[in-house]
Design goal:
The protein is α/β, with parallel strands linked by helices. The chain is built from 17 helices and 28 strands. The strands form 7 sheets. It has a 9-stranded mixed β-sheet, with helices on both faces. Strands 18, 19, 21, 22 and 23 form a 5-stranded antiparallel β-sheet that branches.
């Protein structure tokens, strides 16, 4: 149970938190307060649509009230955790708002995660309820919950057991949950340098502030409409697809599966005005055969992040769609730290990751000493902002991640003229199409393959996905395991498919430092040299 973020030892000094309150960055408003205001202001207008189903604010209020009263009826109390591993379905919005209205803490789980990760998440958060599809992309999700030993209430959405209809079918007034703006609202999970995902706790006020600051940074308007292909179980998808409609009054069009032709058709049919996502969405839309014949003139903003975004991609978005295109930088812990602001020149939008947003503060420091470096020099980016996490679910992680309330992003950046540009990463992490992959987690799984004596996993550049996973292995006698064999091993270990290696390189030994650690820069240089040789035909 997470009754409130005050139960967690805050990594941010009290003086800083008091300053956020005094400045108005933090207010007493909860997400549920904003929800009630949105329903009152626009009951008959569309809040969320997906797959041909539209939900007005009044309908979202009615269905989420059923979820809230239903959760209370089965024993969920304020501060209890409610997990969901759902695609971008309209039911995700109903479940999320119903849980928040019941005073519960949301625990989104990406549908692509397997039993290993799901078991860790539901166990570490103490989830009382978990909502899942009956089958999605060939995966029997109730069976996955059973495999990982989940003993809470299972709600099957779009299934045959009727549990979803029973949950939403409750009637009666929603009880006052008595939650405060500083209480925990969501626990998201991120794959960092640790083997298993870390729980990131956000409060009502951190997420409310994130929405308000992004509204100003993006110049959002009451007539805007979002098309969202990113998972609503990620921080960006949750914010834009589920929270924005009710916190800002800006409706969202959800896509459960990415299909560039379908996305283009939705932009035209729904007069979509802005999109967010990784470069893969842009690239596949522009390359689609229907692009030339689709009216995309309604699109006015495209914000790209989640992976390294080349300036050429931003230029291409602006030219192809005739819109304002820019880069945005953030993470699960600091949802949006920098982005270009309205009125910024094109060079800021394309060549940098933008300026600090709202009340955010940023420093570029020498990672070994914590002292600030000069403008134009590379250092680790540290951030502090009212929308930052309240702390990790396991507070032991806070000591490594924070210094005097500053969050260590693990990314190397350069600051010039008030703008930041991410140039490298300290963290040993791979970002594939916006999905974070812990190299160590993949290594831990591959190391158990009988044919692998030693292994190191690194990112390899990919023009569409940003990065993919490459495994360097030393063979443990006999025939060398091929890519198919390693994939089968990952599947049997319950590792999510997007984390499987997509290239394998066999070496007699791995390069190591004097202390015995694998020297991954050598492997990355090896990959870069191989890619350059292919391009030049050498």
């Amino acid at each position: 149970m997470l009754r409130g973020c005050n139960d967690l030892p805050s990594p941010v000094p009290a003086t800083v938190r008091d300053a956020w309150r005094e400045s108005g960055a933090w207010t007493p408003e909860t997400l549920v307060d904003r929800f009630a205001s949105a329903v009152t202001a626009r009951p008959g207008t569309v809040a969320v649509s997906e797959g041909g189903r539209t939900l007005s604010y009044a309908e979202l209020e009615r269905l989420s009230a059923g979820v809230a009263t239903g959760l209370a009826a089965i024993g969920v109390q304020p501060g209890d955790t409610v997990a969901y591993q759902l695609p971008n379905w309209w039911e995700s919005a109903v479940l999320a708002w119903g849980a928040l209205r019941a005073g519960a803490v949301l625990v989104p789980i990406t549908p692509t995660l397997g039993a290993r990760e799901v078991g860790h998440i539901v166990s570490s958060t103490g989830a009382r309820v978990c909502a899942v599809p009956e089958v999605f992309r060939g995966v029997d999700h109730p069976a996955v919950l059973a495999e990982c030993g989940f003993d809470g209430e299972v709600v099957v959405v779009r299934g045959s057991d009727g549990s979803w209809d029973r949950l939403t079918g409750w009637h009666g007034p929603v009880p006052d949950a008595g939650r405060d703006a500083g209480d925990a609202a969501v626990v998201l999970h991120t794959s960092g340098t640790t083997s298993l995902p870390k729980g990131v706790v956000h409060s009502h006020q951190s997420l409310r502030h994130e929405a308000d600051s992004l509204s100003l940074a993006h110049g959002l308007r009451s007539d805007d409409r979002l098309l969202l292909p990113m998972p609503v179980t990620h921080i960006a998808g949750l914010m834009y697809g589920i929270l924005f409609p009710c916190v800002l009054g800006i409706p969202s069009v959800l896509m459960q599966r990415w299909d560039p032709a379908a996305a283009l058709a939705l932009v035209e049919a729904e007069t979509v005005t802005y999109m967010i996502g990784t470069p893969v969405f842009l690239r596949t839309m522009v390359d689609d055969a229907t692009f030339a014949t689709t009216d995309v003139s309604s699109l006015r903003l495209w914000s790209m992040g989640g992976a390294g975004v080349a300036p050429s991609m931003v230029h291409e978005a602006a030219e192809a769609f005739g819109c304002w295109a820019k880069r945005t930088y953030g993470s699960t812990e600091l949802p949006t730290l920098t982005t270009a602001l309205p009125g910024d020149p094109v060079s800021v939008c394309t060549d940098t990751d933008g300026r600090l947003v709202g009340f955010a503060e940023g420093r570029v420091v020498d990672p070994s000493t914590g002292t600030d470096v000069a403008d134009g020099e590379a250092g680790e980016l540290w951030g502090r902002t009212p929308e930052m996490l309240a702390g990790y679910l396991d507070s032991d992680h806070d000591a490594e991640a924070f210094v005097d309330g500053w969050f260590r992003t693990g990314d190397m950046a350069v600051r010039e003229d008030g703008c930041f540009r991410i140039v490298d990463r300290l963290k040993d992490m791979i970002i594939r199409g916006g999905e974070n992959i812990s190299a160590r987690e993949v290594e831990d799984v591959l190391a158990t393959h009988p044919g692998v004596a030693d292994v190191a996993v690194v990112a390899m550049a990919d023009p569409v996905m940003g990065e993919k996973t490459c495994a360097y292995i030393v063979v443990s006698g006999g025939a060398s395991p091929d890519l198919e064999s390693l994939a089968a091993h990952c599947e049997s270990a319950g590792l999510a498919r997007f984390k499987w290696p997509e290239r394998v390189v066999v070496r007699d030994e791995l390069p190591r430092t004097p202390s015995g650690k694998v020297h991954k820069p050598t492997l990355r240089e090896d990959l870069a040299s191989a890619a350059a040789a292919v391009r030049t035909g050498a």
